[in-house]
Amino acid sequence: MSQEKKGFFSRLVAGLSKTRDNIVAGIDSIFSGFSAIDDDFYEEIEETLIMGDIGIHTTESIIHDLKAQVKERKIKEPSECKALLIDTIKKQMDLGENAYEFENRKSVVLVIGVNGVGKTTSVGKLAGQLKEEKKKVLVAAADTFRAAAIEQLTEWAVRAGVDIIAQQEGSDPAAVVYDAVSAAKARNADVLICDTAGRLHNKKNLMEELRKIHRIIDKEYPEAYKETLVVLDGTTGQNALEQARQFREVADITGIILTKLDGTAKGGIAVAIQAELGIPVKYIGIGEQMDDLQKFDPDEFVNALFHMGQL
Fold first, then answer.
1. 79 vs 36, 71, 253, CA distance in Å?
2. pLDDT means per 10 residues in the chain (311 residues)?
3. φ, ψ (nearest 5 deg) of residue 100
4. Residue 18, class by beta-carbon neighbours within 10 Å (0-12 exposed, 13-18 middle, 19+ buried)?
5. E-assigned strands of the chain?
6. Which residues are annotated as a binding site?
7. Sequence-distant (≥ 6) Cβ neighbours of residue 229 within 8 angstroms
């Protein structure tokens, strides 16, 4: 594991401490407090996982798998179930290879999310990381309705050392994307990242706006690989899951950026989102620094959650 990865893993372990206290302390007390594997034992685990925002459906799946494995392996001691439980949680999150195809092709990445989730910050961090990987990156300030969004993205673009395409506040987001696509082609950019709006309270307008943006990309840049990432605030737990569901109704979501996992007791939502919606969590954020956004590794996440040491 590289030094950068080690640093992020230790910050992830620290950031998930509240979630760990919420879930793992309860799980450990169940494993040590029960002398037999019975219905009460499973019910206690179920309740603890649901309280940790892992979600009802995902929890039911985890318990179902756990019961099957206990029966198959003829396990009698509750303490022997911990490793099985951890593996079962990892299995729930396994959606195969999390694709980062857009990094290797000429691509347009649309980033959507409601105000306050860390969307613009995530765009800036992602741009900075791709620049570090020697990619030519361009960002577009297409969230033209939120006050200060353009200024905020401009600051991040300067910090990341990438070019930005922007217009005035209140201008047509699709027009900004049109300019950005033209610039991306003219400058031979590898990745164009568009910071777009996410006004879920007006889904009809949002849907129309995203359709318009997609039409422009399809017409002006048909050869580009398209990625749509939705940014969710990890501190909001089940609300984040509901937001993901609603965004899925208006856009073809290819991945999730889950922010603010440091200091939340609801980190289990990462498990619920990936297991229940079948949309991969591709990045997680645990702080304000450029490298505090990292690719999501389910094994590493569950190890950090249960403080299992580094991979």
1. 10, 15, 40
2. 66 79 81 89 91 86 93 90 89 73 94 91 95 96 89 95 94 96 98 90 85 95 96 89 90 92 77 87 83 85 71 38
3. -120, 40
4. middle
5. 107-112, 137-142, 163-165, 191-196, 225-233, 255-259, 281-285, 293-295
6. 113-120, 195-199, 259-262
7. 109, 110, 111, 112, 253, 254, 255, 256, 257, 282, 283
In 113-235, beta strands by DSSP E: 137-142, 163-165, 191-196, 225-233
Burial of 239 (0-12, 13-18, 19+ CB in 10 A): middle
Cβ atoms 109, 181 nearer than 8 A:
no
d(CA 175, CA 95): 36
**Around Cβ 188, how many Cβ atoms within 10 Å?**
8
Q: Which of 17, 11, 19 is nearest to 237 (CA)?
A: 19
Binding residues for GTP: 113-120, 195-199, 259-262
Residue 141 carries which side chain, given as an amino acid letter?
A: A
Rounded Cα gap, residues 282 and 112, in angstroms: 14
Phi-psi region of 94 (alpha: psi -120 to 50; beta: other; left: phi over 0): beta
Tokens of residue 106, six digits: 């000429």
Question: CA–CA separation, 71 vs 122, rounded Å?
Answer: 44
Q: Amino acid letter at 59?
A: T
